[in-house]
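Changelog-adjacent note: as of this version, every example in the card shows the full chain rather than a window. The one below runs 278 residues end to end.
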Amino acid sequence: MKNSRTKFYLTAAAVLVTVACILCFSSCANSNDIENPVESASFENELPTLQTQDTSQLNQYPGGIYNDPSYMNPGYQTQTTQPEDKETEKETEKETEEETEEETEDNSGGLAFVSNGNGTCTLTGPGNCTDTCIVIPERSPAGDIVTTVAERAFYGCTFINAVQIPSTVLNIGNMAFANCTSLVYISVSQDNPSYKDAGGVLYSKDGSSLILYPSAKGGSSITISNSVIKIADMAFYKCDDLRVISYDGTQEEWARINIGKDNYGLYTASVSFTDSGK
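Full-length structure tokens:
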């Protein structure tokens, strides 16, 4: 009887120990889940993020996301165009525009043109230009080539001190720059096939016609070549400072020159002759 009771107690004790171990193990497992809920959730959330990243980067990196520097190095940042680069581009564009504007500003603005209907045009006058140095452009604002300066285009423009004529001008009308009492100098492009200047005086290219001696040129004398056979109307108008004309030829040759009207300066100055031109 005593032995039976002893076996019963030992069996019960073993059962109790087993139950206690099971309960203890279960309690420890639950405790670990409670202490690290964020890590578990984070791990689960990372899975769709990585999948999305892989899909979005396949097109950008054809060799796979492992060629993406940011995948291998999380601290890496893909280089993009910075605002400073855009500002540099804008400054470069602005400088280019300013250079173009400077080239355009070399020509006188506001001059009046009339199209000839064939891609060329005629300069008809100063328009609203008030430049003291008139720089005639090769092309009008409309894009036509400037080939002609109209008759009396700048007649009596007392504000003009100088005129620059480009290579494109092939015809200058009669008295185009006459009676410009402040005009000191006329210059012509060396590439102009029809006209030239000599010391600020306007001639035809071959030197046979003296077109204009600027009224305010200054100096008291001028030498005229015996190649000159024509002096344009008002070429020596109001040349009050002119005192001596040296003609490189004979008196007979001088008499044969076709002298236009209103060249009073030629008659108030004394004329000397030489045979050195023969």
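Structural remarks: Residues 2-35 form the longest helix (34 residues).
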